[in-house]
Design brief:
Length: 466
């Protein structure tokens, strides 16, 4: 009997011009309502003529509710479908009692039972109901099985059983699943974004009518995330902006748009978005937001403010911080702005996380922070290694600290911008400003990338010139 319910979906699919309606859900409901009218008119009435007549949904529901549903399974299924689409779960539950004991309605009863359970977040019950619906009618049409697998996938996803969710989603597609409501379109978009490649997801998005895509905040958000994965930051910004125009208070989307603005070098817009995101929710995901905020300020040339934000993040998590990339960047930033004790603490934590690291910058910082000119206090808990790995540039740096090689000789031995930057820091600690300026300018000549060394050299030169 579930196949009869699908008859109305078939009518909907057949009229392709209605697929681009402003509201897919309402269009489906109107077709169902008109079908109800067909039950209430002369049997000789032409169904196509009835579809062309306006009808009140509520009046049609009332007319159907007045029928003797026990003896009219077709009307029973139509009313159940309407309740389901309108999310009127209590009256739908009452209708299930009328289906009880009727073998030819068993698949429909399991389907509606699953929808009710899913709405009430009883995920295990919902999943079992959809599975029973599949088993109860092995000869169900492709569209029916597609619908059941689709809702199974939703259950598995909510249960965080991602492989099972992917399997059910792929089964739904194999049976040519077609979404018929806005909610189904949004859920399907989420499945594509999670389980298919960005290219496939973007291709599928082209099938969504623009009036629907541009009026659903979650759809635009999913599209923006997909563009960001594909390294299309300008398109991502456009999609995120559309989503935020519909729902402005989305912390995650503000954060993502801030990230996209950062990628295109619009640091003012990026700072505005990340500040707004933190203002909306200053607790959840704060560490990640502070990291992004600090990067935006760092790359925008505001190193002291970036250091303040990074310091706030480090103070909040400290001994539990495991992001070695953040720790090393924070240590180097602190050193660049002259906060040597902060650099020391961050570097110690870095080597706790990455005890066997051979990263040049980490060991260059370790050599620098041991300079007697800095007069940093010895820390009993320090884990920063005293020795250096066999990296050529580190040997050059160590030789300069120990007075073995002249600066001109060292500069000729390597084209590394990192080497000249850390040589500049050594000269700064020794009060050799002319040498520091020369080495910072040499750093800029060696790289034009937005590396910490490049950004630090630009910032220090501006300070020295002023």
């Amino acid at each position: 009997m579930l196949g009869r319910l699908k008859f109305f979906r078939h009518l909907y699919r057949g009229n392709r011009s209605t697929r681009r309606s402003n509201d897919l859900s309402c269009r489906l409901l109107s077709l169902l309502a008109l079908s109800i009218v067909a039950f209430c008119v002369d049997a000789n009435s032409n169904l196509e003529e009835i579809f062309d007549k306006p009808a009140s949904l509520e009046a049609s529901i009332e007319a159907l509710e007045a029928r003797h549903l026990e003896g009219d399974p077709e009307a029973l299924l139509v009313l159940a479908s309407i309740y389901c689409n309108l999310e009127r779960w209590y009256p739908l539950q009452n209708l299930l009692e009328a289906m009880e004991g009727k073998a030819y309605l068993e698949d429909a009863r399991f389907y509606f039972t699953g929808r009710i359970a899913l709405a009430e977040n009883r995920l295990g019950s919902a999943r079992r109901a959809f599975k029973q619906a599949l088993k109860s009618n092995l000869e169900a049409s492709r569209s029916i099985r597609a619908q059941l697998y689709f809702y199974q996938a939703i259950c598995w996803l909510k249960l965080k059983q991602y492989e099972s969710a992917k399997g059910a989603f792929e089964e739904a597609l194999a049976y040519d699943f077609v979404p018929e409501t806005r909610k189904e379109i949004v859920k399907l978009a989420g499945f594509y974004a999670r389980f298919r490649s960005p290219q496939e997801t973007l291709s599928w998005f082209k099938s969504i009518p623009p009036e629907i895509q541009n009026s659903e905040a979650e759809l635009s958000a999913i599209l923006g995330r997909t563009y960001l994965k594909e390294s299309f930051p300008f398109l991502a910004i456009k999609a995120f902006s559309q989503s935020l125009s519909l729902q402005p208070k989305q912390t995650s989307i503000l954060t993502l748009r801030a990230s996209a603005h950062r990628l295109v070098g619009d640091f003012r817009s990026a700072e505005r978005d990340i500040a707004a995101a933190i203002a909306l929710d200053p607790v959840s995901n704060r560490a990640e937001q502070d990291y992004l905020y600090g990067l935006i300020l760092f790359e925008g040339g505001e190193l002291e403010r970036a250091h303040a934000v990074f310091s706030q993040r480090f103070s909040a998590v400290k001994d539990s911080e495991k992001d070695s990339a953040f720790l090393l960047l924070y240590a180097q930033l602190a050193c660049t702005v002259g906060a040597m004790q902060d650099a020391q603490k961050a570097l110690d934590r870095f080597f706790q996380v990455e005890a066997k690291s051979n990263h040049f910058n980490a060991h260059a910082l370790a050599l620098l922070l041991r300079l007697p000119e800095l007069r940093l206090p010895l820390r009993d808990t320090a884990v920063t290694p005293n020795g250096v790995p066999t990296i050529f540039e580190l040997t050059l740096l160590k030789n300069h600290i120990e007075g073995r090689n002249s600066l001109p000789y060292l500069i000729e031995q390597s084209k590394s911008a990192s080497l000249t930057f850390f040589l500049a820091q050594i000269e700064a600690a020794r009060g050799q400003e002319d040498n520091q300026v020369y080495l910072l300018k040499e750093t800029l000549r060696r790289t034009t990338e937005q590396t910490p060394e490049y950004l630090g050299a630009v910032w220090q030169l501006e300070r020295l010139e002023n």
